[in-house]
Write a structure and sequence with these properties.
It contains 13 helices and eight strands. The chain is an alpha/beta fold. Strands 1, 2, 3, 4, 5, 6, 7 and 8 form an eight-stranded mixed beta sheet that branches. The two termini are 15 Å apart.
């Protein structure tokens, strides 16, 4: 019997263009997965992948991110968020927008899709299924991508949510809980990177008064990330998981988005996507 396959995208802000390259290779090669779990920018990558919209994510990272409406200090001053998630997942992504998400195709995809967000009051992760999104209502993507302090929390069903990386930084266990026998993990930092909490502590200070439990989780994000990658390496040793990660980030950071650097990182992702083919070779139906 064919093993169920899954893919996990941990996001990483503008570094997510690396994973966008991997997904474009998969679409070009006809590679499908039974399940996907996305965090932050990884949720948006997976939504477009499920919809079969090749190169869409690349356009968002490489082209639209250069606009002041997408990310700027002007947004911070006037909207309270450096990233304007309403512009990204509303103006651009809605039907009739410049680059709409094909919500119908995403919903009709046989791939089970979960998007991780963190409930700001409790600091706990919530795994939203793709069915939680409807045409022109992409609050789940906004919630999954709402970097604390950099963005306002997003409200769903009367509760505030921040970026999914606070609650479940490397959600490989969720993929295995979905019944996957083989999982591809997309990182956007070199695999041996050891993250530190310095920047996270600064961001946590900005939300601690209103959301103390979310701030506490944010302060532990680096620890959770490092533990998650260590666990992934153990799964990889058993042949149950494949880690795809760049050898360097080409100068791209969470919010730094030089177009030439982003193109190089995208191309790295597209090339590295080829590693998925032999990993899934034992499951010819998956190809």
């Amino acid at each position: 019997m064919r093993q169920k396959t899954g893919i996990v995208d941990v996001g990483g802000g503008m570094r997510g263009i690396y994973a966008a390259g991997v997904f474009d290779f998969c679409m070009d090669a006809g590679i499908h997965f039974d399940a996907g779990v996305g965090v932050s920018a990884g949720s948006a990558n997976l939504a477009s992948f499920a919809a079969g919209q090749a190169r869409r994510n690349r356009r968002f990272f490489e082209r639209y991110s250069q606009r002041k409406e997408y990310m700027s200090w002007g947004n911070w001053l006037h909207r309270g968020s450096y990233l304007d998630l309403d512009y990204i997942y509303g103006t651009l992504s809605a039907a009739g927008g410049e680059d709409p998400l094909d919500c119908a195709a995403m919903q009709e995809s046989p791939m089970e899709l979960l998007m991780v967000a963190t409930e700001a009051w409790s600091g706990k992760p919530r795994y939203f299924p793709k069915e939680a999104m409807r045409p022109d209502d992409y609050r789940v993507l906004k919630a999954s991508s709402a970097i604390p302090f950099v963005c306002r929390p997003q409200w769903i069903e009367g509760r505030p949510y921040f970026d999914g990386a606070l609650g479940d930084t490397v959600p490989i266990e969720k993929a295995f809980e979905l019944g996957c026998g083989k999982v591809v993990l997309l990182l956007t930092l070199p695999v041996d990177t050891v993250r530190t909490a310095k920047k996270d502590r600064l961001l946590a200070a900005g939300i601690r008064k209103e959301y103390p439990l979310a701030a506490k989780r944010l302060e532990r994000r680096a620890e959770q990330y490092n533990a998650g990658v260590a666990a992934a390496k153990r799964y990889a040793e058993r042949g149950e998981l494949l880690i795809i990660a760049p050898d360097d980030t080409c100068g791209v950071t969470t919010l730094k988005h030089d177009p030439a650097c982003m193109v190089r990182l995208y191309e790295k992702g597209y090339h590295d996507g080829e590693k998925i083919v032999p990993f899934l070779a034992a499951d010819p139906i998956a190809l």
